[in-house]
Write a structure and sequence with these properties.
This protein is of the alpha/beta class. Helices cover 41% and strands 21% of the residues. Strands 1, 2, 3, 4, 5, 6, 7, 8 and 9 form a nine-stranded mixed sheet that branches.
Length: 281
Amino acid sequence: MGIVKVAVVIPVHNGAATLAATLDNLLQQTLADISITVVENASTDETVRVAQEFCDRDDRVSIDIGTTLLPPLENFSRAMRIGAAKGEYFVLRACDDVSTLDYLEVLAEALDSRPECQMAAGKTKLVAGPKGERFKTPHPNVFNFRDSYESGRVPRNLTFPAEWIYGMFRSETVDRLQARWRELETPWCSASYAVYDFVLQDQVAYVPDTYYIFAEGSGSDKTYGAKGFRAQLKRRLDYCLGCFALRHDLPPVSPVTTVRFFLMCWADSRRKTGYKMLGFL
């Protein structure tokens, strides 16, 4: 198979219970010019068997088997490289998530029509079991950020769904995306951290009429979250300062605006990590 319009990559470790539903959803997408690669990470359950059944059923599906267990950040990074090599655009997909059936087609059309944008994303529908469902949408202040920043207007928070990491990226952005993805050295909050750069640069094509369906409850906050005051403070500072450093790619502004930008990054580090220092900072 040559280069396709959209390459979908699914980084997975022990995802047999949900992988079939995810693959079914992708094979029903209205965009046919796609490839789907299961980026398997040394699973010990039936993940490989489930993936192979779909490979036998549809030649757009393939599996890249990992024999050595990689840390989650590295396996996601591996998936990004595979996707960027196979498609004009690439999409990450969690092994327990789905989307509207027009998701890939609509996002690809958005990138086709907006060459200045490096990624495209829609709303996020959160599915939280007994807690029900709700939608996450970006705040209007995330759009045209550069112009607002240059004129001295900086919001208190830059509010957008962290699940935009499961949006669509131009394949030439893979090095830039991977560099941000690895900086925090932890899966917790890396998604919003990696996308932050694209938001600041007004390089996100937002399509409100399609959405990604994200299953909450993976427990990643407990698995990868920082434990204790010092660790949480370090995580906050790493997030804040890493986002603050992006000011060097923005237009020059006054010292007052620079301070406001730092305060926005600090506030975002609290919202994205969930860590409040001393109960209020």
